[in-house]
Each structure stands twice: as structure tokens, then as C-alpha cells.
Amino acid sequence: EEFRRNPNPAWIMKPNGKAQGKGIFLVSKLNQLKKWAGGPTSAGKSKDTASNLLLREPYIISRYIDKPLLIGGKKFDIRFYVLVTSYRPLKAYLYDDAFCRFCNEQYSTDIAELDNMFVHLTNVAIQKQSEDYNDQHGGKWSVQNLRMYLEGTRGHAVAAKLFDDIDAVFITSLKAVQGVMINDKHCFELYGYDILIDQQLKPWLLEVNASPSLSTTTDDDRVLKTRLINDTLNVVIPPNWPFDNERMRAGVSWNPAPVIGGFQLLVDEREDKDESSRARSRRTKVQQWR
After folding, report:
1. How far apart are the C-alpha atoms of 141 and 137, rounded to whole Å?
2. Is-contact 75 122, C-beta < 8 A?
3. Three-state DSSP class for 151?
4. Looking at the DSSP assignment, which residues form a beta bridge with residue 26?
5. What is the dihedral of CA 211, 212, 214, 220, to 10 degrees?
6. In a 3-state reduction of DSSP, which class is residue 5?
7. Can you give the pLDDT at residue 71?
């Protein structure tokens, strides 16, 4: 249906159970999908396309954002880290050290470049295979540098709106799964969010990684991820653990501070509810006085 309504754009296919860019490919025609569905699987090739499709691992297909924001003519996305200490009520922190991951080759929508993953996929595991890969910076750029670039080229207000929109993506995505996630006050999750920005400075959520890679490729990368691990533990573990029984009963959301190391409070529904209750109480008292 979508292919027929939008015959021109490219589509991207990604396997559910793989990471680091493995198994990802782009298609631009419906018959490419039919050819893929009828191709050999790990269990061998079946004459029946429908049976063959059932043997394949699950894939996600989505429309490819073919007009991304480019810097230096190259495509990039941004890896953010979001720490969730509670789903009900929702409490999450955003890490201040995000980074951009750049492709090594100039971006092109040419059909001949559709299979060139050095043009289209920003995954470090893919880009490291390129002859143009730089070991010093690893094709990465801090989000602070990105914001400075956007403020210089698009203006402060536009850049501020973009990052507010990105924050909204984090919160909306967490609330979308809030009702189905297992909530345990003694558990936490550190997510790796991948965000793509298009030419209109609209952020697109590419994926949420439940187990983001903490391996390092550069010195800056090592510093960032070491600090990330340290700050994560400072958020979720009380300073006198395991002897502080009162804080241990509160679980990993024990810390009321809005800023802990590089983490800043992104959303706290408990505080929002408390503030709403206080506001209702104030309104009630005013009405009674009147």
C-alpha cells in the first residue's frame, strides 16, 4: 500500500535482532522486496515465497529520510543517552554528552549509490571499514559543536527549538511504552537514542537501543563513556549502599537532585503530580477564603 502511494522514495530495511548495521539494506522498488522475500534463508530456499518469508528473521521496513541535514556534504545522526529509573511514574535523565556520527563519503541520492553503506549508514562498525575512516576523530563530533554550528548558520532560536523538539521525542517515546514495560523500583535502563535531523531541522527517531555499545574508538570516546558509566552509577546507587536502608527501599529513584554529573532530569511525573496537587490545594484554599 505505502509503496504504491509513494513510489519514488527509498525504503530502509533492518532486521530486528541485529546491531552495528548488520543486515540493513535499502530498496526503491517493490520487486526488490519480492526478490528478497523469495531468496534463500538459513533453512534453505523454498519454492513457496510465503513459506520462505516465514523462515526469515523479522525485519522492520520504514521510509528512508532521503533529505537529511548535511554538514560538509555528509550525512550524520546523533547518539543520545537517556537513563530511566522508573516507568510508573516516569522518571528519566538525559546525558549532556551526545555525539554525531558521520558517514565517510559524500551523501548522494543517486540510485547507483543505494547499496553504498558508506554513504547511507552512520554506524561506526560500518564506517570503520572505509578507506577514508579517520582513527583520530572516528567520524564523530560532539553535540556541543553541532549546536554551535546550527546557532551560527540557522540562529539561536531555531537551534533551541530543535533541541526542545528532540527532548519531546525522548519523552513521547518513553510514554508510548510506559504501560507495557515491567516496572521494578530496583531496576534501571540506559538507552541509546539515535536521532536524524532533516533539512527542515525536524528530528526523526531512528531507533532506541536497549543495550547501547560502550566500546570506544577514540580517546574522546573513552573519556565520554567512562564518565557516562560513572555518572550512571552515581544516579542509581546511594552513596552509603548497601547500608542506607531508607534509600535502598526507595529503589534506584532515590536521588532527588535534578542534575547528577552529566545527567539532567528530563521528566519526573512524581514531581509533576506533587506540583499539580500543591497547585490544586492552593486553588482550593483561595476559593475557601473567597
Report:
1. 8
2. yes
3. helix
4. 12
5. -160
6. helix
7. 96
Take residue 28 and report the three cell numbers written for it.
Answer: 526503491
SS3 assignment, position 66? coil
Per-residue b or e along 154-171, where b marks 16 or more CB atoms closer than 10 Å to that residue's CB = eeeeebeebeeebbebbe
pLDDT at 102 over 80: yes
Return phi, psi of residue 200, to 5°. Answer: -90, 10
What gap in Å lies between CA 112 and CA 247, rounded to an integer?
59
Mean local confidence (pLDDT), 168-187: 94
133 close to 117: Cβ distance less than 8 angstroms: no
Q: Which of 84-88, 233-237, 250-254 is the least confident region? A: 250-254
**Amino acid 160: pLDDT:** 97
3-state secondary structure of 264: strand
The 10 Å Cβ neighbour count of residue 53 is 16
Helix (H, G, I), strand (E, B) or coil at 188: coil
* Cβ atoms < 10 Å from Cβ of 56: 14
Q: Which residues contact 101 (CB under 8 A, 6 or more apart)?
A: 76, 77, 78, 79, 122, 123, 124, 127, 139, 140
Tell me how far apart the alpha carbons of residues 82 and 173 are, in angstroms, rounded to a whole number. Answer: 11
> Which of 51, 101, 47, 93 has its CA nearest to residue 74?
101
Categorize the per-residue pLDDT at 217 as very low, low, confident or very high, splitting at 50, 70 and 90: confident
11-18 average pLDDT score: 78
Asked if pLDDT for residue 285 goes beyond 80, the answer is no
